[in-house]
Prior knowledge:
There is one protein chain. By secondary structure, this protein is α+β, with helices and mostly antiparallel strands. The protein is built from 16 helices and twelve strands. β8 (213-214) and β9 form a beta hairpin. It is globular.
Amino acid sequence: MRRGIAASALVAALAVTMAACSSSGSGSDSKSDGPVTITYWDTSNATNEAPNYQELVKKFEAANPNVKVNFVNVPFDTAQNKLQTAMGAKGAPDVFRSEVGWTSAFAKAGYLEPLDGTPALTDVSAFQPSLIQQAQYSGKTYGVPLVTDTLALMYNKELFAKAGITAAPTTWDELKADAAQLKDKAGVDGFWLKAADGYYAMPFLYGEGTNMVDTAGKKITVNSAEAVKAVDTYKSMFTSPGTVKADVTTDAYAHMMDAFNNGKVAAIIQGPWEVTNVYKGAAFADKKNLGIAAVPNGSTGKGGAPTGGHNVSVYAGSDAAHKAAAEKLAAFLTSAESQTFLALKNGTLPTRSDAYTAEVKANPGIADFQAVLTSAQPRPELPEYASLFGSFGTNLGKIVQDQSDTKAGLDATATDYAKLLPDFTK
């Protein structure tokens, strides 16, 4: 499922103190020497992924007879707001699956239990270091990496061969040239990029050596000269020959995936969460037809895509017995065995090296994305970072529809950022 960044004002949580968070999430008996029922909020896709998480929870209960788990699947698009509301009042889950962008904000608000030295995080060295870094705030770790992802160039090898293209493009200019050649020689659209979405625009910023903000220098950079150049390149991906014009409808994502899965467009920028669905498409009955390569580089000769994914976090407002049980569940869900199970069932990327078994790596989608992960950019430790995507995406939508020129649109975003980050300079 798309790792979309909710546009809600997550930073509002930062003003809420833990005084309002004194009740246990499960509301069950808090005695530490008896059975405990904990509540786990799962934010995975209810149809394709959640059943496998439920199966893992049942295995956990069988191995821990004194712990019962109330499994609740919460739609990802609404989970951020629901968690924020619940943790600021009552009814919060004891443990939950949290998008990596939420972790530092929830930690700053005091909602999360530090997991360093707890049973939840006993084998920290097994995890990819950058993923542990993304789960930290002010020197403490508030989540255990559950799944990871990034963006890559997915392409149809058969269509590329038909157009006489023998290798994946390594720059945006090469991709535009390939798109035109695909249209001319293979008779299909060459490239489709998800429009008006800041997450999918991040590789263009990285390719010009910039980001939305410079966290170390406390500076807003979304309207810098480098960012303007990046977004001009981004905009050209909707207007060049062979590229699909910007689709800003509510069903844009589904339109893009349908076209790619059925061989109507030759290449897209996408994440590993779609690999399983792509394999179900008519164009990829032969899984070997799916090509996966790093996103193209910008004019700096560098590139990369954002590192996304989910952590398992424990609610700080639960009592000791529920925290202890929640930490056990967090450890179980992120164990090598569970990570391997999820990779095989859901096609997701493990966060720890010992889960990349021969069987897991036999899935070409997982093996190819593992290689792409080496160039992925970790998310900076900034509680407000997830909230930056809202204004950025809105103004990208205006830019690609010619309702605003690039500089004016990014200036508008910078103005919004100044309100969100008052201690940052423009």
